[in-house]
Every structure is written in structure tokens, then in C-alpha cells.
């Protein structure tokens, strides 16, 4: 969610990796809800990114939308686990309280969550980390996403791949075990990023 930037539908499609038809449909819907506006050059901009973000977050159910593979580690030091996964060159991205602990430390997670491209990738990462598969109650959970778009805008924090702050906020919003608290703290980081981007665009 790049607040303040003006886009063409083609640019949106290219950046997000969707078809131009999909980009047109989504933009039309958001224009209808007045989340977006077009200027005289037919370029699109977000009118109220915070309202759109909160609407998306309110409807998103992380536990229901995704599927999970559970593993167990006897290692209790989060830092050691994250250092270990940071060395693995496969596609993953930390999310919910794991991502929040890296992006805006507030709540120290008990269980660690990482998006993985697919089940095979998750199993390969688990093998490299010598994790033990477990039917339930695992303290490391690989999340197989409902949509590969969760990786859009991923960042690297302390050497660990983490979803974008916007995706992280959406995942945290309805997440139990203090997810709402972590989301609230992360929102301040997002708003400051948007303000900085807006100031930068005004001086271009």
C-alpha cells in the first residue's frame, strides 16, 4: 500500500503480478467505494489509506484463510531460531507476532509463524532446521498462504525475511494472544512511514 503515489492500472498490474483485467476490476470496485480517486490524467491514488487498511484488516481472518504445518523445536531462544532460519535461502516470511517482534518489538511471541511458498518449501526448511513434525501444538508453524500476494513488499529485518508492515498489520488485527496490541503498535510505524513518504513526494 504505497500511500501518496499515483498509478496507472497497468503499473498496478505489473507491480502486483496480476492481470490487467484483475487490476481494472479491483480498481473499479475501490473507486466505487471511494477508497481511490482518478486525476485528470486518469491516474489513480488512494484517498484514505488508513480507512482501506482497517477495512481489509477487519475482514481478514488469518487462522481461517490459511493452512498450517506444525513443527516442534526444543530451542527456547527466539533469537537462535530466527538466526537459523535467516541462513536458509528458501522463500519464507515471518508474520503475526513473530514478524511484529522483528518490526516493532512489543510482545515476545511463544510460537513462531512463517509464511512458506508451499508445503514442499516448508518441509525443506524444517528439514534444514532439524524440526520435528507434530500434528498439533507445535511451537513453529509454517503458514501456507491463501494467496501468494502475502509476499509482496517483504522486507528483511535483523537478517530475517518478514512480510511488509501492511500485510503484518492485517494478519495481526484479528490474531489472538495480544495480536491487537501488537497491531496497534505497528500501526504507528506504518503511519510514520506514510508521513515520511508524503513529505518526500512533496519535495520532488
Descriptive account of the structure:
By secondary structure, the protein is α+β, with helices and mostly antiparallel strands. It folds into two domains: 1-47, Orthogonal Bundle (Arc Repressor Mutant, subunit A), CATH 1.10.10; 62-187, 2-Layer Sandwich (Beta Polymerase, domain 2), CATH 3.30.460.40. Helix content is 47%, strand content 16%. The protein contains nine helices and nine strands. It has helices spanning 9-16, 20-32, 49-59, 62-65, 78-86, 96-103, 119-128, 165-173, 179-202; strands at 36-38, 44-46, 67-72, 92-94, 112-116, 132-133, 140-144, 155-157, 160-162. The strands form three sheets. The protein has a five-stranded mixed β-sheet with strand order 4-5-7-3-6. The protein has a two-stranded antiparallel sheet with strand order 1-2. A hairpin with a 5-residue loop joins β1 (36-38) and β2 (44-46). α1 packs across α2 and α6 (96-103) packs across α9. It is elongated and about 60 Å long. The model has no long low-confidence stretch (mean pLDDT 91).
Which blocks of ≥5 consecutive residues have pLDDT under 50? Answer: none
Q: Give the percentage of residues in beta strands.
A: 15-25%
Shape: elongated
- Beginning-to-end CA distance, first to last residue: 20 Å
Q: Say what the CATH topology of the largest domain is.
A: Beta Polymerase, domain 2
In helices, the fraction of residues equals 40-55%
Biggest sheet: strands side by side, in what order?
4-5-7-3-6
Estimate the mean pLDDT confidence. Answer: 91
Alpha carbon gyration radius: 18 Å
Query: How many structural domains are formed by the residues?
Result: 2
H/E element order: HHEEHHEHEHEHEEEEHH
CATH class of the largest domain: Alpha Beta
User: How many alpha or pi helices?
Assistant: 9
Overall number of strands: 9
Helix and strand composition category = alpha+beta
Largest sheet: 5 strands, mixed
CATH architecture of the largest domain: 2-Layer Sandwich
Amino acid at each position: 500500500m504505497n500511500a501518496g503515489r499515483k498509478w496507472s492500472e497497468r503499473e498496478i498490474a505489473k507491480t502486483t503480478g496480476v492481470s490487467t483485467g484483475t487490476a481494472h476490476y479491483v480498481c473499479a470496485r475501490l473507486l466505487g467505494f471511494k477508497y481511490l480517486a482518478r486525476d485528470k490524467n486518469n491516474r489513480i491514488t488512494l484517498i484514505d489509506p488508513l480507512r482501506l487498511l482497517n477495512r481489509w484488516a477487519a475482514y481478514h481472518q488469518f487462522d481461517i484463510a490459511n493452512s498450517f504445518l506444525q513443527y516442534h523445536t526444543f530451542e527456547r531462544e527466539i533469537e537462535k531460531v530466527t538466526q537459523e532460519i535467516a541462513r536458509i535461502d528458501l522463500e519464507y516470511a515471518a508474520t503475526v507476532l513473530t514478524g511484529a517482534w522483528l518490526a516493532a518489538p512489543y510482545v515476545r511471541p511463544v510460537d513462531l509463524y512463517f509464511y512458506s511458498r508451499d508445503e514442499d518449501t516448508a518441509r525443506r526448511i524444517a528439514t534444514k532446521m532439524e524440526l520435528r513434525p507434530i500434528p498439533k501444538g507445535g511451537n513453529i508453524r509454517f503458514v501456507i498462504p491463501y494467496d501468494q500476494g502475502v509476499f509482496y513488499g517483504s522486507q528483511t529485518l535483523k537478517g530475517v525475511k518478514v512480510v511488509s508492515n501492511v500485510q503484518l498489520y492485517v494478519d495481526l488485527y484479528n490474531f489472538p494472544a495480544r495480536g491487537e496490541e501488537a497491531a496497534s503498535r505497528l500501526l504507528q510505524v506504518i503511519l510514520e512511514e506514510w508521513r515520511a513518504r508524503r513529505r518526500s513526494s512533496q519535495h520532488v
